[in-house]
Design goal:
Length: 395
Amino acid sequence: MAGAIATQTLREEGFDGKITLLGQEPNAPYERPPLSKDYLQGKADRDSIFVHPGPWYAEHAVELSLGGAVTSLDPASRTVTTAAGAQLPYDKLLLATGSEPRRLDVPGADLDGVYYLRNVEDSERIKIEFARAKRVVIIGAGWIGLETAAAARAAGLAVTLLVSGDLPLQHVLGLEAAPIFDELHRSHGVDLRYRTTAAELTGRQGSVTGVMLSDGTKIDADMIIVGIGAAPRTELAAAAGLKIDNGIVVDEHLRTSDPDIFAAGDIAHAYNPRLGRHIRVEHWANARRQGVIAAKAMLGQEAVDVRPSYFFTDQYDLSMEYTGDIGPAGYDRVIFRRQADPNQMIVFWLYDQRIQAGMNINIWDVADDIARLIQSARPINAENLGNPAIPLATL
Ligand SMILES: Cc1cc2nc3c(=O)[nH]c(=O)nc-3n(C[C@H](O)[C@H](O)[C@H](O)COP(=O)(O)OP(=O)(O)OC[C@H]3O[C@@H](n4cnc5c(N)ncnc54)[C@H](O)[C@@H]3O)c2cc1C
């Protein structure tokens, strides 16, 4: 995502030099959000997921080299080497290698029928298995776990969801707002198991047959989906000696510790001058925004993006957008701005009377207002904030 947007920005900004976009996957750059939503549910076709239409790259003189990993990077000679042995020189280099799913490390984790979801092929394999399987256990109640649970229910499977804490998404939404997603999934028939993890996957003839939980309970399953988080793919950068700390460390212009190498998207632990600290964000909007910033920085422009982070999810009939970043200090107040329709609301997280983040559920065209309120960093009247009769734009 970040790489594709960077190439687009380079051309839009008038760069007429050579651009090569190297990708390990056989596919041209595509959007991942549909892989756990519409594409997984068969509601979107393959053509709709690509960042640019196929001919775009040739039309914009972007050399697209797919299906081969970059295996090393030498900042001293300014070259990258591919698995096929090609050596490519660069003047400026952007690393946008994304992240990879964390692997389950328990006995039986390598059995057939255990799935991870990162690439379009993973989504296609899971979709095929949904048509065959009857019972799925999903390990992990983060975004991937919840979205695949919704897709599995739509496909008619019995779904058990293992939650490591007290509630799904507890680490993102906190104890006040996480019950929204807990109730959503329970009301759609998902069997949520709390404070538990998989101790072992059981199998027969090489295929998974169930999960043994940490409390000794056994659950039968003919497929398992693992959604226990992702790790940034920093191996190239680390081997090249770039500074690594929770991703590749970059400044506000996305420049790494080498002035000719930039990093964007899931891998970038970027300095945010508004927050006064580095943050790393594994979301779609961040990859798009940083693709733009990195391209401009490679052209010598001092672009910075200080907008609050943004992401979205769709599960069953719930669509939500989340804007903001809860800092290390956390939050000290949660305000629910409820509408007459109980399916619509906005939740705000405040610290010291200032809005840190907002989540709008089944309400549209308010994310920009929420972002403005966060960026203003003004103390807010909590009573007005909770009153849906007072427009956000006037607060
Ligand atoms: C199933 C799924 C659903 C998601 N849903 C949402 C959502 O609803 N909302 C949201 O905000 N975000 C969502 N995300 C997150 C979002 O898709 C990512 O944050 C975004 O794709 C990150 O973009 P990126 O450019 O950093 O990395 P990626 O899009 O992952 O691209 C990195 C590319 O680099 C390639 N690569 C890695 N190493 C090498 C190498 N050595 N050589 C060559 N190529 C290499 C990879 O194969 C990959 O193709 C979702 C992610 C997934 C997996």
